[in-house]
Specification:
CBS-domain; alpha+beta; 371 residues; 8 strands; two-stranded antiparallel sheet; four-stranded mixed sheet
Length: 371
């Protein structure tokens, strides 16, 4: 997630903090500090022994940080179960709306997805029960307040995440249950539709009570839509191999031509990127973006070999297009040479994949209408 700084690593998982978290911690700390006596009364604590001012805002700051520690534990629970089941976790990010565990892949086995999804709310519930018991046993007013407030927040966190609306944990559990009976795409779409409906309802409530709820609703709606589209993309593209959509008539350039010559080739052939071949071997990829890095007065002397991307990824004709798309998005490359052994047999671009997806998704719609 852009705008994040790495705090450290836990169980081999990078923990990152997004700058928006600072804003929400300050907001929560201020809200608690300004309403500490009212909150204590709501929790059934008649005299917490807290004075308004510096002390109340300090307690608010501690509880705000504690909230995100709870969120971190929630996300760590997801991540640890994922790792134990062979799913790589790229990072955990803490940001404006809580936490996100970036899994390498979403479990396709419904039972595993239920397990991974449910453990987060269960961990929040565990924290809530622990703090509640501690708050009931202690006689120190301030400590009682802090423990009971943390308990309440974690009960809320567990309950909110169990709402059966995508992308919350409850929505993922709903998707997994539906996937036991229906195709994965259909199950995902149904769970995402529930998530979007919930987001609309939450947004309407936010109009009358709290504008922050509108922001949460917007995030839920967008996340549900993106998840549904991502699964559709992966599912549709996984049905074809690279050889089905690659361009076989591959135009290549030499690393020894100048940038001026390269630009003329781009204009003539209407392609923006080419494999660079030397002595029959692919040695790089050069694009218009690479040529733009060269000052205008140097395009006559600078060679393609000086600006080309040498760390290229080559794919096989038998590779799955769904996997290729994920690699493209991860590495931010727009095209891959297709190699059959040492022979260049084609090239696959982002445009090729998007065009194929549009065609295949239309076929999918026709099939759904027929059946």
């Amino acid at each position: 997630m852009k705008g994040s700084i790495k705090l450290g690593t836990v169980f081999g998982i990078p923990i990152k903090l997004h700058f928006t978290l600072i804003f929400i911690v300050i907001l929560v700390a201020w809200s608690i500090g300004a309403n500490v006596l009212l909150l204590a009364d709501m929790l059934g604590i008649e005299d917490p022994g807290i004075t308004t001012g510096l002390q109340s805002y300090t307690i608010g700051l501690v509880l705000a940080v504690g909230l995100f520690v709870s969120v971190l534990i929630h996300e760590m629970a997801h991540s640890i179960v994922s790792i134990k089941n062979g799913i790589k976790v790229n990072e955990i990010s803490l940001w404006l709306f809580g936490g996100v565990s970036a899994l390498e892949e979403i479990p396709r086995d419904p039972n595993l997805e239920i397990k991974v999804s449910a453990v987060g709310p269960l961990s929040s519930l565990g924290i809530a029960l622990f703090c509640f018991i501690g708050g009931m046993l202690t006689t120190h007013g301030i400590l009682t307040f802090m423990l009971l407030y943390t308990s309440f927040i974690n009960f809320f966190l567990a309950g909110f995440n169990l709402i059966p609306a995508f992308p919350m944990d409850g929505g993922r559990i709903l998707r997994a249950l539906l996937a036991k009976k229906y195709p994965y795409i259909k199950a995902t779409k149904a769970a995402a539709d529930v998530g979007k409906a919930f987001a609309v309802l939450l947004g309407i409530i936010g109009l009358f009570f709290n504008i922050f709820l509108i922001l949460i609703a917007f995030f839920i709606y967008i996340a549900a839509s993106q998840e549904s589209q991502s699964v559709l993309f992966k599912e549709v593209l996984s049905r074809i191999n690279v050889r089905n959509i690659m361009s076989e008539d591959v135009k290549t350039v030499s690393p020894d031509i100048t940038i001026e010559e390269f630009i003329k080739i781009v204009i003539k052939l209407h392609h923006t990127g080419f494999p660079v071949v030397s002595s029959g071997k692919v040695v790089g990829i050069v694009t218009m973006s690479d040529s733009k890095k060269v000052p205008d007065d140097m395009i006559y002397t600078t060679k393609v070999g000086q600006v080309m991307e040498e760390n290229i990824i080559c794919v096989s004709p038998d590779d799955n297009v769904g996997d290729i798309w994920e690699t493209m998005m991860k590495e931010q490359f727009g095209r891959f040479p297709v190699m059959d052994g040492d022979e260049l047999v084609g090239i696959i671009t982002r445009s090729d994949i998007l065009h194929s997806f549009n065609v295949l998704s239309e076929v999918e719609k026709v099939r759904e209408e027929e059946f």
